[in-house]
Write a structure and sequence with these properties.
Blueprint: H1 2-21, H2 28-58, H3 78-88, E1 97-98, H4 101-106, E2 125-128, H5 132-145, E3 149-152, E4 170-173, E5 180-184, E6 189-193, H6 198-206, E7 218-219, H7 230-236, H8 243-246, E8 253-259, E9 265-267, H9 281-285, E10 294-301, E11 303-304, E12 308-315, H10 319-331, E13 338-342, H11 344-352, E14 365-372, H12 375-391, E15 396-399, H13 403-414, H14 416-428, E16 433-435, E17 439-440, H15 446-459, E18 463-469, E19 474-481, H16 486-502, H17 521-525, H18 527-540
Helix pairs in contact: 1-2, 3-5, 10-12, 11-14, 15-16
Length: 568
């Protein structure tokens, strides 16, 4: 009604404007009506103009934003950064602000990325937060001065997630926020700060026999590595060993406390396992790689550790038979704790290693964990797994009889990273590098993916070893290369990524996009999905200060080439 009256007033003004032009004197009431209409109309025009200015940057009346529609992004200058730091010293402990060269270097690269940061890619400051309130104060100020801010947790990511891509950047380190806040044994969940590691949480749980579960311990199911921070696991939606049973992080997180780019603190949900209250903000932050907000606390689901466990090792002549067995496990309703596969090349590395006491045939090998509430359940599971494996013509079926043998049999998988590194140094020399890939495909496409991906590697004259979370169809085909072969290896990895997309898969099962795979993401999801993500990003972070240039482009005139080439 208000807007209609404004429109009518403006029409009336226009209608009677000629009276002034011809010096026809309007009535007093008419003049008041015209004056009021002009006032209201001007107000509406100003309101509309300001709204348009605010809106044109982000939406342009559309649901998506193409990168070509964005202006060149301008961040705070070196002078603005120094003003921000001086202001920040009054809000957090000044001792948590550092420019120490060793600290700067350790926050610029973790040694696990194929590309090393240039000098210009190193942060100017590292800021340590000790609470959600610290994170909020830091982001309020960085938002005010438009300072690029890169979140840093455990530093174990593999896709250049914490490379600084813009000048005058800071790194916000949350690793000191490492308190376990609450363990709810009845509800089977735990609330933790973002710097708690997978290992820390599970070691704490292992020391607490829970009366509600009859004396069994609890565990956090997603096994992404000992030193992985919970917040980093959320940021990349990681999974790891046991993915086919526990899923990825998004299935294991109940609630998140996050700080947005302007310092606003939000909590996504309460603590029940089931809720339909509002948008799924918990899912939105999972896999966002620190580009939408910084996770500071979360509540995660816990699982009861079954009292009886065992490990099975099964070998096959080829990958097709191994995949066939895994498919039948699922089709017959068997829920195993872990289904991992090492290919023939990786088994060569295992036999070479001093970390494994057994010698295996050089064949595709499944390493599986099974557990149950009693021996009868586990014995039946072993019997069923063996029957299916024999139907698929396995060459070896072995299961552990005690705890010591369990540990020994699974050592080849548990120590796979260190085994492949030792093998590479011995085979190719101390200068050899290892590129870890992360594709995932539907299980029915797995044999074709592995066959064709290995052909791509072989045709390039490179060597690879494969470790797979086969139950989830996630493959780490890890490629050895010399420094001078970097460009060759880069092309191989890109071709493998394109192959995974062709086979209805993804370029990343758990490591995320970061900088490394940003250029390939539109091939998998399509430009409209990327443009929608860009709109979400800029709605939540209008200055694009949070981990800029990761996942999607935020600038049509990027001042660096965000690819694997390293020419930033």
């Amino acid at each position: 009604m208000f807007i209609n009256n404004i429109i009518k007033s403006k029409i009336y003004c226009l209608k009677h404007a000629r009276s002034y032009a011809t010096k026809t004197k309007p009535s007093s009431s008419t003049f008041k009506y015209i004056a009021g209409g002009v006032f209201l109309g001007a107000g509406a025009t100003l309101l509309y103009t300001n709204f348009s200015k605010e809106s044109s940057f982000s939406t342009s009346n559309k649901s998506t934003i193409k990168v070509s529609e964005l202006p060149k992004r301008v961040y705070g200058s070196e002078k603005m950064l120094e003003k921000a730091i001086e202001e920040l010293k009054t809000k957090i402990n000044p001792n948590n602000i550092t420019q120490h060269p060793d600290t700067i270097l350790s926050h610029a690269d973790n040694g696990c990325n194929p590309i090393k940061p240039l000098e210009s890619q190193k942060p100017q400051y590292v800021l340590y937060a000790e609470s959600t309130e610290d994170v909020s104060e830091i982001l309020k100020i960085m938002h005010k001065y438009k300072i690029p801010t890169i979140p840093y947790g455990g530093g174990t990511s593999l896709e250049q997630h914490f490379f600084t891509t813009r000048e005058n950047s800071v790194v916000l380190d949350t690793s000191r926020m490492n308190k376990i806040l609450q363990i709810n044994e009845v509800d089977l969940d735990a609330s933790v700060q973002c710097g708690v590691t997978w290992n820390q949480l599970n070691e704490t749980l292992a020391e607490l026999p829970i009366s509600a579960t009859g004396g069994s311990c609890l565990m956090f199911g997603c096994d992404c590595g000992l030193n992985a921070n919970i917040s980093g696991m959320i940021a990349t939606n990681a999974s790891g060993i046991g993915a086919q049973k526990h899923g990825s992080m998004v299935q294991n997180v109940i609630s998140i406390t996050a700080v947005l780019a302007d310092g606003t603190i939000v909590k996504t949900k309460q603590r029940p396992r089931k809720s339909s209250a509002g948008y799924n903000l918990t899912g939105l932050f999972s896999g966002s790689e620190g580009t939408l907000g910084i996770v500071t606390e979360c509540t995660v689901k816990l699982t009861v550790v079954n009292p009886i466990e065992t490990v099975c090792v099964v070998q096959f002549d080829d990958l097709y038979k191994a995949v066939g067995a895994v498919s039948k496990f699922a089709q017959r309703g068997l829920v195993l704790d872990a289904i991992e596969m090492l290919d023939s090349n990786m088994m060569k590395a295992v036999n070479f290693s001093s970390q494994v006491n057994q010698t295996f045939e050089i064949k595709p090998t499944l390493f599986m964990k099974l557990s149950g509430i009693n021996n009868l359940v586990v014995d039946e599971m072993v019997k069923e797994v063996k029957q299916i494996s024999e139907e698929q013509e396995c060459n070896l079926f072995k299961f552990a009889k005690d705890k010591a043998e369990e540990k020994e049999l699974f050592a080849a998988r548990k120590n796979a990273l260190w085994i492949m590194l030792d093998y590479g140094y011995d085979l190719f020399g101390d200068d050899v590098k290892l590129w870890i890939t992360d594709a995932a495909v539907p299980l029915s496409k797995a044999p074709e993916y592995l066959k064709r991906a290995n052909e791509i590697v072989d045709n390039a004259g490179l060597t690879s070893v494969t470790v797979a979370h086969l139950g989830a169809g996630n493959f780490h085909i890890d490629i050895y290369y010399q420094p001078e072969q970097l460009a060759v290896c880069e092309k191989v990895v890109k071709d493998m990524c394109k192959l995974s997309i062709e086979l209805e898969g993804t370029i990343t099962g758990e490591h995320g996009i970061g900088l490394g795979k940003k250029e390939l993401l539109p091939l998998e999801l399509g430009e409209p999905a990327i443009d929608l993500m860009r709109n979400i990003k800029l709605s939540m972070d209008p200055h694009a200060i949070l981990n800029p240039d990761k996942v999607i482009k935020i600038d049509n005139e990027e001042n660096f080439n965000g690819t694997w080439s390293g020419k930033y």
